[in-house]
Design goal:
By secondary structure, the chain is of the alpha/beta class. It has 13 helices and 14 strands. The protein has a six-stranded parallel sheet, with helices on both faces. A five-stranded mixed sheet has the order 10-14-13-12-11. Helix 2 packs across helix 3. The longest helix is centred in the middle third of the chain and has 21 residues. It is elongated, with a radius of gyration of 25 Å. The model has no long low-confidence stretch (mean pLDDT 93).
Length: 390
């Protein structure tokens, strides 16, 4: 079972997923469709709404889930899930952008909207701005054209009734993203482009997923609202993310590579909490250290301090589903006490093979084999073998 968190866009609410969420639940998955502040049934005043308030709502939902989720953002929701991913990278298995804004670091939604190469397919001309009051509305006569032109009359009327008069705060679209490769950038991304979109043009969608590459791009021949125009097809694309063995193996390898880079080369000990599950078990712990996350932090801290310039280089990696084997070498210079051995100033190369198991993008188990004899020989504690006579 997977968990989907579906985040709506501007002028919408959790109600917009009413055709899709049951299809995901009927397939055995858990689905959350929260209302962002000031949307749907949430009555937060416009004057109190910021991008961070949106992000906080999403993070609250993420924190309540037992496992990393498939986080889907539609339209404006793409900005929200991007910033939430920066703040909760360990809670997200995959990011899905559904005809959504996909900003780079420093970009805002408005920055992207103004870059649209085809303004004839952009919602901006259909808006009424109330700058003093801090919100925008969609002109009632253009709601269907902007969002629902290919939906049934009944669905379009039902959705338009929700959107008519809805107030979208102006603060969030003007707020630049603050993202990093180490956090947001480590999460696998999928973009679902809508090719008959009249709110965010297909040209702008392509520009965004080209500037911020996604592991997979799916095309749907629908309006801006595939959750109403083609809910079964959309649900099928989302369900494919829940069980894609080949993709999962590659994603797991990528998770391990990022963990090695962040925890072992960049010395971010907090990455242990971001990548290792709460129930993580180390089956081959280093003597004197516990077999849990606290023990792993202790081992990493020991190596950071004992070996100057400590870093890891991956030399080979093989994955089979949720199991990842990595062969790597640690490099450093022995300038601090290590297991009772005073600093020698010697450079070392430590050969390591790790076997990791992952669940929903989190590392759950570890087995390791370290060339301890080779390390002791390099440190001069154990004599190196004599060369064979010629």
């Amino acid at each position: 079972m997977s968990t989907y968190v579906l985040i709506h866009g501007s002028w919408h609410g959790g109600w917009c997923w009413d055709r899709v969420a049951p299809l995901l639940r009927n397939a055995g998955h858990h689905v959350e469709t929260p209302d962002l502040p000031g949307h749907g049934a949430d009555a937060t005043p416009v004057s109190e709404i910021t991008l961070q308030r949106y992000v906080d709502r999403v993070c609250d939902v993420l924190d309540a889930q037992a496992e990393p989720v498939i986080l889907v953002g539609h339209s404006h929701g793409g900005v929200v899930v991007t910033q939430a991913a920066e703040q909760r990278p360990g809670k997200i298995r995959t990011l899905v952008y559904l005809a959504a804004f996909l900003p780079r670091n420093g970009e805002s939604l408005l920055d992207l909207a103004r870059q649209d190469p085809d303004m004839s397919r952009n919602v901006l001309p259909f808006l009424d701005l109330f700058e003093e009051q801090g919100y925008a509305t969609v002109q009632p006569e253009h709601i269907r054209e902007a969002f629902y032109h290919d939906c049934s009359d009944a669905d379009a009327a039902w959705a338009a009734e929700h959107v008519r008069g809805a107030r979208e705060p102006l603060a969030s679209p003007a707020t630049p993203m603050q993202t990093t490769p180490e956090r947001f950038g480590r999460i696998p991304r999928v973009y679902i482009a809508c090719l008959d979109d009249r709110a965010i043009s297909p040209a702008l969608q392509k520009l965004m997923y080209t500037n911020t590459p996604c592991g997979r791009v799916v095309e749907m021949h629908t309006s801006h609202s595939p959750f109403l125009a083609a809910p079964e097809t959309l649900a099928g694309h989302l369900l494919a993310l829940a069980d894609a063995p080949a993709d999962r193996a590659e994603q797991n390898k990528a998770v391990v590579r990022r963990f090695v880079e962040e925890a072992q080369t960049l010395h971010r000990v907090e990455a242990v909490d971001e990548y290792l599950s709460d129930d993580f078990v180390d089956h081959t712990p280093m003597p004197g250290f516990s077999p849990d996350r606290a023990g792993v932090k202790g081992v990493f801290t020991l190596f950071y301090t004992a070996f100057a310039g400590f870093r890891a280089v991956i030399e080979d990696q093989v994955a089979d589903g949720d199991r990842v084997m990595t062969r790597k070498t640690f490099y450093g210079t022995h300038q601090g006490a290590f297991m009772g051995i005073p600093p020698t100033g010697r450079p070392v190369q430590i050969k390591v093979i790790d076997v990791l198991y992952l669940r929903d993008g989190m590392i759950t188990e570890h087995w390791g084999a370290v060339d301890q004899l080779g390390l002791m020989q390099q440190l001069g504690v154990v004599p190196a073998p004599e060369a064979a006579p010629a």
